[in-house]
Design a protein that fits this description.
This protein is of the alpha+beta class and 286 residues long. The chain has a single domain, classed as Jelly Rolls. The chain is 24% helix and 23% strand. The relative contact order is 0.23.
């Protein structure tokens, strides 16, 4: 079975050793020499606010970085840091895998995240937060930047769940907690398989925007779970608020290695070196 057929059938696919160790090591060299010592605010994923670097007692960045591909716009001193992340997210290997998965020649990055540690994420479908039009063609990518220990809280998917569609009330469409409870009950009631694969440094799991997924909670806080997440829109498709509104969202881009990268409103609205913004940065954490 080829990659396109497997992805259509299962709703996800894993590529082993897709990202070179050199690209990953280059990123962390700059992460530890550049970003970790910075003092300005940055967009935090869990808090959905701007905040400064905060390191846990175990030495990990507490809050994930939202839209890491845009950090050079937040502060020009982070140009090398951003580019080292983009060298992974826009790598030729990622581009080739995406083309094999959906047979589309080109894709755009719509959002990205970096995780040093993990808090766990409830099961959900991406199209509740962002999607393509026609629906169900957005592709997520979870990139392991180290060997992920099971006790660190592994990423998981529910195989073959990509066509599961919930009829939601207006309140449920606008209240993530209610939506996540519905998904949880659906998995429990139907005794669906939750698959949390062992992913090693350089492995990438791609999933469809309709595939139910999330991440297990960390059991051992002494363990990191270094990883990237990105969402890719295939060329020829519109970007929408979510599957339930289908409101087309226009966006500006810049290019890296011939990949168009979306510039979010949170960055476009920057007016000071240490901005505070009410803009939200994206969908769920992973």
């Amino acid at each position: 079975m080829n990659s396109n057929d497997k992805f259509k059938d299962d709703g996800y696919i894993i590529y082993k050793n897709l990202i070179s160790e050199k690209l990953i090591d280059d990123f962390f060299k700059i992460f530890y020499s550049d970003f970790i010592n910075s003092t300005e605010s940055y967009p935090q994923m869990n808090n959905q606010e701007w905040g400064k670097v905060d390191i846990s007692k175990n030495g990990f960045l507490k809050d994930p970085l939202a839209d890491i591909h845009l950090f050079k716009f937040i502060n020009s001193t982070h140009k090398d840091f951003t580019n080292s992340a983009l060298n992974i997210l826009c790598s030729n290997s990622i581009k080739s895998a995406l083309k094999e998965i959906d047979l589309v020649e080109k894709h755009s990055i719509m959002m990205s995240m970096f995780f040093d540690q993990n808090k766990g994420t409830p099961a959900h479908q991406d199209w509740y937060y962002l999607d393509s039009l026609p629906n169900g063609n957005l592709i997520g990518a979870w990139i392991a930047l180290e060997d992920i220990n099971e006790k660190a809280g592994r990423f998981y998917v529910v195989p073959k769940s990509q066509n599961f569609f919930l009829e939601l009330s207006y309140e449920e469409q606008n209240t993530p907690d209610l939506y996540e409870e519905i998904v949880f009950e659906y998995i429990k009631k139907n005794k669906l398989k939750v698959y949390s694969p062992e992913l090693k440094k350089g492995d990438v799991l791609f999933w469809n925007s309709g595939t139910i997924h999330g991440s297990m909670k960390t059991i051992d806080p002494k363990l990191s779970r270094k990883s990237f997440t990105a969402h890719f829109l295939p060329a020829g498709f519109d970007f929408v608020q979510n599957r339930y509104s289908n409101k087309i969202r226009k966006f500006k881009t810049f290019s890296h290695n011939d990949v168009d990268c979306r510039i979010t409103r949170s960055v476009l609205n920057i007016k000071s070196p240490n901005p505070r913004s009410t803009s939200k940065f994206g969908s769920q954490s992973y």
